[in-house]
Amino acid sequence: MKYWFPTNKKKIKEFHQYFQAYDEDFEYGSQLPECLLRNWSKSKKWFLELFEKNIPDIKACKSAKDNSMTLLQATLDIVETETSKENSPNYGLLLLWASLSNAVPVAFWTLAYVLSHPDIHKAVMEGISSVFGKAGKDKIKVSEDDLEKLLLIKWCVLETIRLKAPGVITRKVVKPVEILNYIIPSGDLLMLSPFWLHRNPKYFPEPELFKPERWKKANLEKHSFLDCFMAFGSGKFQCPGRWFALLEVQMCVILILYKYDCSLLDPLPKQSSLHLVGVPQPEGQCRIEYKQRV
Ligand code: HEM
Q1: CB-count burial class (<10 Å; 0-12, 13-18, 19+) for 49
Q2: pLDDT digits (tens, 9 = 90+) for 172-204
Q3: 56, 165, 236, 252: which has the fewest Cβ within 10 Å?
Q4: pLDDT-wise least confident of 9-18, 27-36, 261-270
């Protein structure tokens, strides 16, 4: 079975370079005419061609164990039945960008917040040791049961997402709507800022503080977040990767902290003001010292 993701060094480098160019200008590229951003447009074309060429293989790839589908296969299925086959490469690229560009900075910020709060760091490490043992030498598998026992880590990820939520979510109005007695005409662009909403003390007391315990009140078992938590958007176009994102960031944090004793060498960095769409990146360096746990 052919596997579409590049495996040799040269191809991986090429993939990385195009992804960097695409990610760097995504903010502007997704809003401005493509002719104004030649590099962005070139990288987008490269990815669309890559998806176009590989979609038959991606769809044909079968799980070795059972009949389960990958997230990408399920997404392509929906896109093709609900819209048209022509949209598949675009949706594939959207999935690739949305998954990497948000979850990776969330993993970074979660680690940075945990490490910069000694009491929380201590409690997280006690949790990890109680589930997986004290030394970080063995290879571990993280099961759903383990994650349930490590609820504090889930709260840390959610609290990080609250504080580092996307700056804006935009929607073009397609037909006039009435909101709070105002008529919004079609063609207007509506903007909502999860970042600022999450800093409203009415909904999140002491909003600037990293307080994972505020998530105790959320009914996560019933898949609901705290009121006015909007990092994943809402309604029909809400992020379809939200539960997957939580899962992968929790696992990443657990695996790193199980294996290594980590400490921050730099203060928690500011966030870059260049990113409004998606999770903000750190501005400047933030070095982490790590050594294997024994
Ligand atoms: C913590 C990490 C993440 C955050 C904060 C986030 C946030 C968002 C937001 C705000 C939107 C726009 C929602 C709207 O327009 O109403 C979105 C859309 C989307 N996200 Fe995520 N996301 C994250 C991770 C992921 C992951 C891991 C995946 C895939 C595995 C993913 C896939 C998508 C896709 C495909 C869309 C477009 C949905 C559509 O337009 O129909 N996201 N995400």
Answers
A1: exposed
A2: 899 998 988 999 999 998 899 999 999 999 999
A3: 236
A4: 27-36
